[in-house]
Amino acid sequence: MNIGDVAERSGLPAKTIRYYEDIGLVRPVRGANGYRHFDQTELHKLVFVGRARSLGFAIEDCRLLLSLYEDRSRESAEVKAIAETHLDSIDRKIAELERLRVCLRDLVANCNGDTRPDCPIIDALSTTRAEPVSRAREASQAWGRANGRSHKNAIV
Amino acid sequence: MNIGDVAERSGLPAKTIRYYEDIGLVRPVRGANGYRHFDQTELHKLVFVGRARSLGFAIEDCRLLLSLYEDRSRESAEVKAIAETHLDSIDRKIAELERLRVCLRDLVANCNGDTRPDCPIIDALSTTRAEPVSRAREASQAWGRANGRSHKNAIV
DNA sequence: CCTAGTCCTTCCACCGACTGGAAGGTCAAG
DNA sequence: CTTGACCTTCCAGTCGGTGGAAGGACTAGG
Q1: Region Disordered: what ranges (chains A, B) (predicted)?
Q2: CA(B35)–C1'(C13) in Å?
């Protein structure tokens, strides 16, 4: 199969598959014309990685999971540990987002949203409060790179 | 104030403040020695942006909010609209993460996590199911850049 | 054989929002 | 005069791709 075929079968864009080869997740052989050629094994690996990514595993986790997938003598404890760590990170992210949601919902609820300039949201962002900005940074980082606005398929 | 002072007062790293100048969020004046000099107004803007970022607003939202902050004749509806859009995006992210959490928790719960190779997590990632991978891509993108592993302060 | 169209290749640049580090200038204290 | 803290600019890297240009390979039709 050429890259277009595995792209269709795996549901991954060809660009992504080339990238996965670049970082060593798959190793398609090359034909005489320079085209990549994928066998069933490579296709399975792509599907595997696609699913792991869809569950939010990082690429390096995928690499690890892939090696465990191919290791018939793996211990399920190893896999479980990766998944549990990931689950924890999801929990932390949800908790942080919940915190933001509560905060923002309050602000939005208190804002009239009319033609007058008076706005509790702006006030909250600008007013010097008892508890200053000291912890703003951590929270800001906590949100992390989650909101890639410009990204085509990102949830915004 | 030099950059170190405003860094301390705003809670933002000096590097970040330079970056904010780079992208035009603040415009400190320069002294004869080339050092940036920040007055109260610039400090307030930095604090403002720091707070907005800590609520998860994107830089471009911050830029908009900042211009509304400085516009005394703004309409609170404009601010509210930005906040509501952001709130929606938070809700969507939470929903997506909840979906992943449920899925992962089931997988983890079903895995023995012992020394045997038998692992339902690996099975789920590799087995061809009735519903194939067709939607894996969207979900993968949905997770987005949220898990910047290498990032110092990112929630992981 | 030529052409059009589709597929494939590589390479480079870009996204967000910084962060790290190198190389070097400036300033205040001792 | 030196030390050290602070400041400057610039370049590169983060994560996981995505967009596009420039050009080679292949297939079908005339």
Answers
A1: 135-156
A2: 32
